[in-house]
Automatic annotation (TrEMBL):
Keyword Oxidoreductase part of the UniProt annotation: no
Protein name per Swiss-Prot or TrEMBL: Serine/threonine-protein phosphatase
Keyword annotations from UniProtKB, A to Z: Hydrolase
Alphabetical list of InterPro entries matching this protein: Bact_Sigma-Reg, PPM-type-like_dom_sf, PPM-type_phosphatase-like_dom
Region: Disordered, residue numbers: 1-45, 57-85, 224-281
Signal sequence, renumbered to the chain: none
Length: 601
């Protein structure tokens, strides 16, 4: 045979490897093809089968005999004859159970992914009650949030239920989970043994057949006191760097006191010069060590006490209840899936609750820094609308009485968002108040001083502002208003005979140029007219360019009826709802929004 690699050369003959024979390892030789194969097991002759087994000393004959196999045709023999069929049915059952588990896990994964995408607390509550209805097979339900710490917020969100339905359910406490319980089941609300007359009436009115509720609770770990680390007297109880320093400087310790004295005597003499060696303390032999106690008398070794694990305590957040149209109850699988989902949902709700509380606290603090109520000035009625952003912005407003019956109106905004912008806004507004009292008749001087203060104290921040000085009413009727703006939106004058923007001079925001200066504008406001001051948040929330946004504000002011123009509060609401339809004027938008309306009678 030719070599596969070297041409012209024959391949060496390869013999199969020889296997060494081991006793008892030689395989059985198959029977010849032309002869019938002998049976593997042959029946023993009757004479051989009748011979009893040899007796073993000390062992009964019945015990030494081999156990008899199953009789032919018995049930065990038939079960052995059908191993494949039983194994196939078992595999099908296992596959069905695995498929059911995969479906359940996929459903839980999808629902938890949808829940994780919710950002606001109200959206989270709606998603939880809707997902739970999918798991238990109910189309109506409610989730009631009432934290056990009493800090709120307390709210109720319904699924397929209106406000009147929620009020009726709260009167009869349907589905309320008792304290200490995890779930409650009402399999028949109309004819059940535990239903009262009022409950049956409400259930029949709303078409409710059964209810199933679960408690919303999370585990809060509480550190248990450790008796081993409790504070005791003596150096062994010290812990921390401060305690260690106190131990090293404790003069009550005899060893430390003698050691420090010896060092002092060895270092210096009475006159401050180095002491001679002969005057030092004499050398003393160290005390011999005490003999070690025998091993048998030594104290036995004791295992250190384990530190107590932090205890988990259930913190109640609220409850979720679902309602069936007919008398029914969820299956064991539905209860298990719903419980697994609510454990994840409770943690997500707890995080959303903490975030909502933090946002509410920040919003309340920011709102308290602005004027809670506007001043009462004869002949002037005012209204303001402020909508804060999610992080807190720098838009502000102010209205303050000035000497000689005058009035100061101001709106503005600081760049940035968050606590820093809120703090800068409050500092800027307080400074403007001081400058307005001293030189309010000249709005340009007020803004110039404000710009100088901003450049010296916060050089990395800029701001816009609009300040107006309204004089006392004159004999001829009307009021004289002097305005000055720094990069701010012009105000809008609304009346029965005119609706126009006041053309203030074009100027840069504060702290944008090395020296800010802009002329002021004077106008006369007639009785029955309103001056509308607003920030750029009103324009940005529209989503349009500046020209279109200004046109929308102007059109909204012109469309106001006479009854709306007479009330500054109604005029402010009309402008907000017309310029920002579809809930764009709600609190929590992308930017802050301020709208100040002053009507002159």
């Amino acid at each position: 045979m030719p070599h596969p690699l070297v041409p012209g050369r024959k391949s060496p003959q390869v013999n199969p490897p020889r296997v060494r024979k081991v006793a008892g390892s030689e395989p059985l030789r198959p029977a010849a093809a032309h002869t019938p194969s002998a049976p593997a097991v042959t029946a023993a002759p009757a004479a051989v089968a009748a011979v009893p087994p040899p007796a073993v000393a000390g062992v009964p004959a019945a015990a030494s005999a081999p156990p008899a196999g199953p009789a032919p045709g018995s049930g065990q023999d038939m079960a052995r004859e059908q191993p494949e069929r039983a194994s196939y049915e078992h595999r099908l059952g296992v596959q069905d159970r695995l498929a059911a588990w995969v479906c359940d896990l996929s459903l839980l994964h999808e629902l938890t992914e949808r829940l994780a995408r919710t950002a606001l607390l109200d959206d989270t509550l709606r998603e939880v009650v809707q997902a739970g209805g999918t798991l238990v097979g109910a189309r109506r339900g409610l989730i009631s949030l009432s934290p056990a710490d009493g800090l709120g917020p307390d709210t109720t969100v319904g699924l397929g239920l209106g406000h009147a339905d929620l009020g009726a359910l709260e009167t009869v406490a349907f589905g309320s989970v008792p304290p200490g319980a995890e779930e409650v089941l009402h399999p028949d609300l109309r004819h059940g043994p535990g239903s009262l007359g009022r409950q049956r009436e409400v259930a029949a009115q709303l078409g409710l057949g059964a209810g199933y509720g679960l408690a919303l609770a999370v585990d809060r770990t509480v550190s248990a006191p450790d008796p081993a680390n409790s504070s005791t007297s003596g150096p062994a109880a010290s812990s921390g760097p401060g305690d260690t320093a106190a131990l090293l400087s404790d003069p009550s310790d005899e060893n430390l006191r003698d050691f420090s004295t010896g060092v002092a005597d060895f270092s210096t003499a009475d006159d401050g010069s180095p002491a001679p060696l002969a005057e030092t303390a004499p050398y003393t032999e160290p005390a011999p060590f005490a003999e070690a106690a025998p091993f048998a008398e030594a104290a036995p070794y004791t295992e250190p006490k384990p530190r107590p694990a932090p205890a988990a305590r259930r913190h109640r957040l609220g409850q979720v209840v679902w309602f069936y149209d007919e008398a029914a109850e969820p299956t064991a699988r539905q209860r298990r899936l719903t419980g697994m989902y609510l454990r994840f949902a409770a943690e997500h709700i707890a995080r959303g609750l903490d975030l909502a509380r933090s946002r509410q606290a920040a919003a309340d603090l920011a709102a308290e820094m602005l004027p809670a109520r506007l001043p009462r000035v004869p002949g002037v009625r005012m209204a303001v609308r402020h909508r804060g952003g999610p992080r807190g912005g720098g838009d502000w407003y102010d209205a303050l009485p000035l000497p000689e019956g005058a009035l100061g109106l101001a709106v503005g905004g600081v760049t940035g968002a968050g606590p820093g912008a809120v703090a800068a806004r409050d500092r800027l507004r307080a400074s403007l108040r001081a400058y307005a009292v001293m030189e309010g008749e000249d709005p340009v001087a007020v803004l110039s001083d404000l710009e100088l203060l901003l450049r010296l104290t916060e050089p990395a921040r800029s701001a816009t502002a609009l300040f107006g000085h309204v004089c006392a009413p004159q004999d001829a009727g009307g009021r004289r208003v002097t305005l000055a703006g720094a990069g701010h939106c012009p105000p809008l004058l609304v009346g029965d005979h005119r609706c126009e923007f006041v053309e203030t001079s074009l100027s840069a925001p504060l702290n944008m140029l090395s020296c800010w200066e802009a002329p002021s504008v004077e106008l006369r406001v007639r009785p029955g007219e309103s001056l509308v001051l607003f920030t750029d948040g009103l324009l940005h929330r529209t989503g349009d360019c500046a020209d279109r946004a200004f046109a929308r504000v102007h059109a909204a002011a012109r469309s106001a009826t006479g009854a709306v123009r007479e009330d500054p509060g109604r005029l402010a609401d009309h402008l907000l709802h017309t310029v920002l339809p579809g809930g764009l004027d709600r609190t929590g938008g992308e930017e802050d929004l301020v709208l100040l309306v002053a009507r002159f009678d």
